[in-house]
Write a structure and sequence with these properties.
Elements (H helix, E strand, L loop, with lengths): L12 H17 L4 H38 L3 H9 L2 E2 L5 E2 L2 H39 L3 H7 L13 H13 L9 H26 L1 E4 L2 E4 L1 H21 L2 H24 L1 H7 L2 H53 L5 H18 L1 H4 L1 H26 L6 E3 L6 E9 L5 E10 L5 E5 L5 H9 L5 E6 L5 E4 L8 E2 H6 L9 H10 L12 E2 L1 H4 L2 H15 L3 E5 L7 H14 L4 E6 L10 E6 L7 E4 L7
Parallel strand pairs: 5-9, 8-14, 8-15, 10-13, 13-14
Antiparallel strand pairs: 1-2, 3-4, 6-7, 6-9, 11-12, 15-16
Length: about 600
Amino acid sequence: MTISRRSWLIDGVLPFLRDAWHLARPYFSSDSEERWSARALLFAIVALRLMMVGINVIYSFWNNAWFTSLQERDWNTFIHLLLIGKRLPSGMIMPGFCLFAAIFIVVAVTRVYLSQLLQIRWRRWMTHQFIGRWLSDRAYYRISLKPKSENVATYTDNPDQRIAEDLRDFIGDSIGGSQGILYLGVDLLSNIVSLASFITILWGLSGHFTVFGWAVPGYMVWIALFYAVLGTWLTHLVGRQLVPLNYRKQQVEADFRFALVRVRENTEGIALYGGEADEQATLLARFTALIQNWRKLMTRYKYLIGLTSTYGQVAGVFPFVIAAPPYFAGLVQLGALTQTANAFGEVQGAMSWFVDQYSTIAYWRATTERLATFWRAIEAARAQAFEGVHTEAKEGEAFALHDATIALPDGQKLLDHVTVALKPGTPILITGRSGAGKSTLFRAFAGIWPFGGGGVQRPSGSTLFLPQRPYIPLGTLRHAIAYPAPADSYSDAAIREALTDAGLGHLGEQLDAEANWALTLSGGEQQRLALARALLAKPDWLFLDEAMASLDPEAEAELYEMIHRRLPGTTVVAIEHRPPRMNRPTRHLVLRRAPDEAGQVVETEQLAAE
């Protein structure tokens, strides 16, 4: 995936901020009652953070009086300022340090706790929103079929990572150490308030400075501004490549993890093929990409940390150097010097917020871009939900394709303006050569194939589609066999009977055992489990896409007969590579297609019972 550097620089800030606002705003403006608690928590967090700024402002005056008492060796003032407080000669009542510390600790702990509470509630809400929209209108399916060559603005890789990790990092996780929009937003606001508070103090303490006969008021404010602007410019110059590098980091990390999961899920196939060397090469190749990007990040962070560390070290002594001449001239006391240095540090620090948070902003911006891209991909997929072969609201007894064009993702047509009607009652067999498009026709009948056009009429009643590779969810065996119905939809006796009829009676005592059944069961056993689902669901229509391909012909014939016997009211539509052994009259359709041409569905003579 190639990302233009220009799009990540200053001219891309406004689109990035719009994306961040678009992602963050709905939680606080949704129609649910959640928005009120969200607003209350945010208000409390901001109020507590600003309270900490106020405490720091008062503390700067306390610091002045404290160091002045040290300089004047005033023991009484020293003790009062430490313990109970004192009225200063200026008339200001200054609380003691112990009260300061107690209030500060309570405010800090409460703010952190409320921030963590808001973070997890916000993440929960956004996770529900993303998962709901991703799974709605089969957006997840359409996104998975998009080729990687499409525009980066709509292409989405590793949706699992974007939901699990990018959402967490976008909001922030103070427990896990990631700093997201909540931390950055509140911290920026507090720095603005701190700047407004301390700039007045610094302006009053700075006095005038004469340059070439000109009296410059508040000269230390101007020095702090110049220092911050210079540091910000240099930091952006050095660190601007961090955003695309962090974007790439998240991508290669997810790719490597996905490859590891693929190995875990296909251990038997890899072992049978003896593909360990190839898998190792694939894993190491992906890890090498991760290392290469990591080294680029190391280099860039080396320069950035070197710059910001230098900037911070100089900032620690710079205000003392600037404020020292009046002190040594006897114009100000030690307390005033420390307050001036403190105020300069607060002003300069607030102005340098961008410098201090640059690496955090760069990482968060990459996260925001990935989430915004994912959201746009979801919305684009949902907007195209009725494209392709879609379900029509037509009534009738037949399951039918009307004027359907079925194409591949690259636009090649498998069928062009074809009409096929499947009437209930008689079993139906659809065959064709490999590559003719049988499985794609199966998906078109299901109404999920997004490429092409036309409609599919689905009669009233229930329908169940069983693909060649069954989906076995995680959890108990009871959950796996009842899927997609709730696990408690069927009695133990009904489940055991279905397992026995499907040839899996030995699993009847493991209904509540949790395992990765997709790995525990063989391919044939997985297909038998899917057939047991059909026996439980008792659909009016049952579509089988080579759903017994892993079984021997005798077992296949036995299971077909068992299905017809146990489900007499079900119309079975079997899509097979070649005609199986059938024990009853069957309507036979053949999908014929020449290479690189659109095919056709031809009805042959009805197959007789064997």
